[in-house]
UniProtKB/TrEMBL annotation, chain B:
Organism lineage string: Eukaryota, Metazoa, Chordata, Craniata, Vertebrata
Superkingdom of this protein's organism: Eukaryota
SUPFAM superfamilies: WD40 repeat-like
Keyword Repeat among record annotations: yes
Keyword tags: Repeat, WD repeat
Gene Ontology CC terms: protein phosphatase type 2A complex
Keyword set includes Lyase: no
Assigned protein family: Belongs to the phosphatase 2A regulatory subunit B family.
Self-association state and partner proteins as the record states: PP2A consists of a common heterodimeric core enzyme, composed of a 36 kDa catalytic subunit (subunit C) and a 65 kDa constant regulatory subunit (PR65 or subunit A), that associates with a variety of regulatory subunits.
SMART domains hit by this protein: WD40
Region: Disordered, residue numbers: 381-404
Signal peptide range in chain numbering: none
Protein name (Swiss-Prot/TrEMBL): Serine/threonine-protein phosphatase 2A 55 kDa regulatory subunit B
């Protein structure tokens, strides 16, 4: 295709393109759902399946933290915007480091001493 | 015979249900894996509390020839316990992610069970005899005074009540930085693979202090991470071949003869996507939650959020069959994302002859697809339809405006009742369906 043709866009074409987009939004249920989500969470990241969600998956189970996390969390409290964004579904939901755990805080995970009810 | 009749020709009947009826389900009781052994004689379940329960198929009752035998508890044990990794501040759940049986080689049974970090080889053995008539000790175990012994006797083996003992024979630990999602026993019966989000390791069943890393997709810079490994399986008869699936909906087939590190694949399976239909949800719903080779080894099946796809290993550019599990959820993706259901990991399974496939859905529904007739059926695992030998009634979800009688509307579906784990007997039409904390067993009516 020559650049000339690609470069020029008549007003007619633009109107047709908008119409196609509207059709897409109307006909594709996924795109309707996407619009709903973006309306509820305007700060949602643009890389949905990418790094943020995956890294959250990789750090599942991360309970406590080091002093680096603690200082980061303290810094976040000063900046009022970030906590709101972090609590949204942008992959940054869990904040570690906002308190120092003591042995009394740690929930004791004991193995189930009870037999499975399937064996009952 | 299973291969000839279509899924709708089967008459699935309720056989048994295991587990408590109470509404309050303890987290630990949630079943996290279900697996028949190679003969179908044993059925193992693992739960979030780290426990394994094994059921055994009883012999058919001669008085009632129309019934197949039932599955009764054979053995139960605590496989994994909760741990805390102090070095990484990481809580390690005891939840059993997968159980895989080894092919039986002697009278004992062996299985591999894994949680997020550690794989264990368990031996389940029977003891039905004990020795009596020892010289140096009494029947109750007290040592006899050797000077009082005036004659010798040979101890004899006497029958005793059957005792089934489970003992851990190997512990394969410290080989995974990330969470283990799959284990698969190789057809050589000597090795097995274990896969976590970023790496796959090859083990020898006898060796616990060494493991070979065969796939490593960790990027040098974690900011560049774009996909993770979601499942992996060894080929059923080619011991050099395995596959792994990704969160981007792709499958890579690797041949261990080509290189020690199988980072470059031999085959790459991906269905082309229409770029104009791409949305925020596209990648999330394309993430493959399970991959299973057919028994024949010619095909493999993948499960993503809304569908099941069958792939011919000889064709990489698209699946040969696609089955919609619950397409009506496509217009609910926004709320499914908000309640995290969109991340649910459904499994899938083949029947013994590879003519049918089964997978779970919500509202305790599960779906079966007949590959020959292309017919499908939706059934429900519920206490209401749990009368002995009662035939299961097909269920239907209404998607349009008019809801017919007996249909259920999409908005009435219970998304907390998810069937993630199902298993099909390797030889017979017997299926096991895990519905949260209950295990249902259904059988095809023998005519």
């Amino acid at each position: 295709m020559s650049e000339e043709i690609e470069g020029t866009k008549t007003t007619e074409e633009t109107v047709v393109n908008d119409q196609n987009e509207m059709d897409d939004k109307v006909t594709s249920p996924e795109k309707v759902e996407e619009a709903k989500l973006k309306a509820r969470y305007p700060n949602l990241g643009h890389k949905p399946g990418g790094s943020d969600l995956l890294r959250k998956r990789l750090t599942k189970g991360q309970k406590y933290f080091d002093s680096g996390d603690y200082n980061m969390a303290k810094a976040k409290v000063k900046n009022k915007q970030l906590p709101a964004a972090a609590s949204e579904k942008s992959g940054g939901g869990e904040i570690t480091g906002d308190h120092i755990p003591t042995p009394q805080d740690l929930p004791q995970r004991k193995p189930s001493l009870v037999a499975s009810k399937l064996a009952g | 015979m299973a291969g000839v009749a279509g899924v709708n020709d089967f008459q699935w009947c309720f056989s048994q249900v295991k587990g408590a009826i109470d509404e309050d389900v303890a987290e630990a009781d949630i079943i996290s894996t279900v697996e028949f052994n190679h003969s179908g004689e044993l059925l193992a379940t693992g739960d979030k509390g780290g426990r394994v329960v094994i059921f055994q198929h009883e012999q058919e009752c001669k008085n009632r020839p129309n019934l197949r035998g039932e599955y009764n508890v054979y053995s139960t044990f605590q496989s994994h316990e909760p741990e805390f990794d102090y070095l990484k501040s990481l809580e390690i759940e005891e939840k059993i992610n997968k159980i895989r049986w080894l092919p039986q080689q002697n009278s004992a049974h062996f299985l591999l069970s894994t949680n997020d970090k550690t794989i264990k080889l368990w031996k389940i053995g029977e003891r039905d005899k004990r020795a009596e008539g020892y010289n140096l000790k009494d029947e109750d175990g007290r040592l006899r005074d050797p000077f009082r012994i005036t004659s010798l006797r040979v101890p004899v083996l006497m029958p005793m009540d059957l005792m089934v003992e489970a003992s851990p024979r190997r512990v394969f630990a410290n080989a995974h930085t990330y969470h283990i999602n799959s284990i698969s026993v190789n057809s050589d019966h000597q090795t097995y693979l274990s896969a976590d989000d970023l790496r796959i390791n090859l083990w020898h069943l006898e060796i616990t202090d060494r493991s070979f890393n065969i796939v490593d997709i960790k990027p040098a810079n974690m900011e560049e991470l774009t996909e993770v490994i979601t499942a992996a399986e060894c080929h059923p008869n080619q011991c050099n071949v395995f596959v792994y699936s990704s969160s981007k909906g792709t499958i890579r087939l690797c041949d261990m003869r080509t290189a020690a590190l199988c980072d470059s694949h031999t085959k790459f399976f991906e269905e082309p996507e229409d770029p104009s239909s791409r949305s925020f949800f596209s990648e999330i719903i394309s993430s493959i939650s399970d991959v299973k080779f057919s028994h024949s080894g010619r095909y493999m099946m993948t499960r993503d959020y809304l569908s099941v796809k069958v792939w011919d290993l000889n064709m990489e550019n698209r699946p040969v069959e696609t089955y919609q599990v619950h397409e009506y959820l496509r217009s609910k993706l926004c709320s499914l994302y908000e309640n995290d259901c969109i991340f649910d990991k459904f499994e899938c399974c083949w029947n013994g002859s590879d003519s049918a496939i089964m997978t779970g859905s919500y509202n305790n529904f599960f779906r079966m697809f007949d590959r020959n007739t292309r017919k499908d059926i939706t059934l429900e695992a519920s206490r209401e339809s749990s009368k002995p030998r009662a035939t299961l009634k097909p269920r239907k979800v209404s998607t349009g405006g008019k809801r017919k009688k007996d249909e259920i509307s999409v908005d009435s579906l219970d998304f907390n009742k998810k069937i993630l784990h199902t298993a099909w007997h390797p030889k017979e039409n017997v299926i096991a369906v895990a519905a949260t904390n209950n295990l249902y067993i259904f059988q095809d009516k023998i005519n």
